[in-house]
Design brief:
There is one protein chain. The protein is mainly alpha-helical. It has a domain of 34 residues. Helices cover 89% and strands 0% of the residues. The radius of gyration is 36 Å and the shape is rod-shaped.
């Protein structure tokens, strides 16, 4: 019974607590909420900008990797051609 009564009293304080705030406290809290909402909006804007930048960098990285693969394939082909030419043409010795 004591425990039940304690919960009832605690619930009453939780309900009456915000109602007991004065107008000044409510205005301060409203200002604080406004500031926090602005900060959140700014943070979301920065996040969107960074996500766009990251996406652009991913695209650029994919292009660079494709170019790198192309150049490596060309290099390997040229190495094979060079090896084949060395085998066909014996070097002159003096």
């Amino acid at each position: 019974m004591k425990r039940y009564l304690l919960w009832v009293i605690l619930a009453a304080f939780m309900v009456v607590g915000p109602l007991g705030c004065g107008k000044k406290e409510i205005e301060e809290l409203t200002v604080k909420v406004g500031q926090l909402e602005k900060q959140l909006t700014d943070a979301n804007t920065r996040l969107a900008d960074k996500e766009k930048e990251a996406g652009d960098l991913r695209i650029e990285l994919a292009k660079e990797n494709a170019e790198k693969s192309k150049l490596q394939a060309e290099r390997d082909k040229l190495k094979q051609e060079l090896t084949a030419l060395k085998k066909k043409k014996p070097t002159k010795r003096r």
